[in-house]
């Protein structure tokens, strides 16, 4: 059993049951190994969790950058929001990352949030770059920095609705938030 397989199963379990609801025994059973075998790769549950967070952050960020790199105009930023929803619906890794970035285990909050801030700062840079390239489309009263922060606020709203309300409810929030964002930000 590889470290990656253990990590992948653990991500799925952490996404479904949270940190507290996922035991090393639970992970071992899901992978089909003895609990002691996990300790060959991970010192303890915290190390497994933090390794999963790091991997999820790296992969989620790489995919976000890929999607954002294809966006040419501000109105296309809405595609990123739909991508985010689709990822959450289809990927245990995305569900894990979303849940843990909002609800990290209290005793690991500092370490988890360090990864979350790396992710958010990189996402902010990507969005700011798109907005700066299309500054002529921006309302002259709105700075690139403000438009970027507002977009990340829409991302946050969609993420919270995914966690609390699920994919069906998020579509309503996404459409309304995007409509107001466009009206306030674009010329």
TrEMBL record:
<dbReference type="InterPro" id="IPR009057">
    <property type="entry name" value="Homeodomain-like_sf"/>
</dbReference>
<feature type="domain" description="HTH tetR-type">
    <location>
        <begin position="1"/>
        <end position="60"/>
    </location>
</feature>
<dbReference type="InterPro" id="IPR050109">
    <property type="entry name" value="HTH-type_TetR-like_transc_reg"/>
</dbReference>
<keyword id="KW-0805">Transcription regulation</keyword>
<dbReference type="GO" id="GO:0003700">
    <property type="term" value="F:DNA-binding transcription factor activity"/>
</dbReference>
<keyword id="KW-0238">DNA-binding</keyword>
<dbReference type="GO" id="GO:0000976">
    <property type="term" value="F:transcription cis-regulatory region binding"/>
</dbReference>
<keyword id="KW-0804">Transcription</keyword>
<dbReference type="InterPro" id="IPR001647">
    <property type="entry name" value="HTH_TetR"/>
</dbReference>
<feature type="DNA-binding region" description="H-T-H motif">
    <location>
        <begin position="23"/>
        <end position="42"/>
    </location>
</feature>
<dbReference type="Pfam" id="PF00440">
    <property type="entry name" value="TetR_N"/>
</dbReference>
<protein>
    <recommendedName>
        <fullName>HTH tetR-type domain-containing protein</fullName>
    </recommendedName>
</protein>
């Amino acid at each position: 059993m590889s470290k990656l397989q253990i990590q992948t199963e653990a991500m799925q379990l952490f996404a479904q049951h949270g940190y507290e609801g996922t035991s090393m025994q639970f992970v071992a059973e899901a992978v089909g190994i003895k609990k002691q075998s996990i300790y060959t790769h991970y010192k303890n549950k915290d190390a497994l969790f933090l390794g999963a967070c790091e991997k999820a952050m790296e992969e989620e960020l790489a995919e976000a950058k890929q999607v954002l790199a294809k966006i040419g105009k501000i109105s296309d930023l809405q595609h990123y929001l739909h991508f985010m929803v689709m990822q959450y619906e289809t990927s245990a890794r995305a569900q894990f990352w979303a849940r843990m970035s909002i609800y990290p285990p209290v005793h690991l909050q500092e370490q988890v949030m360090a990864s979350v801030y790396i992710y958010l700062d990189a996402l902010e840079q990507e969005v700011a770059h798109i907005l700066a390239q299309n500054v002529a489309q921006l309302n002259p009263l709105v700075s690139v920095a403000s438009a970027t922060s507002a977009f990340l606020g829409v991302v946050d709203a969609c993420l919270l609705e995914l966690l609390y309300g699920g994919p069906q409810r998020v579509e309503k929030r996404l459409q309304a938030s995007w409509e107001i964002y466009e009206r306030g930000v674009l010329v």
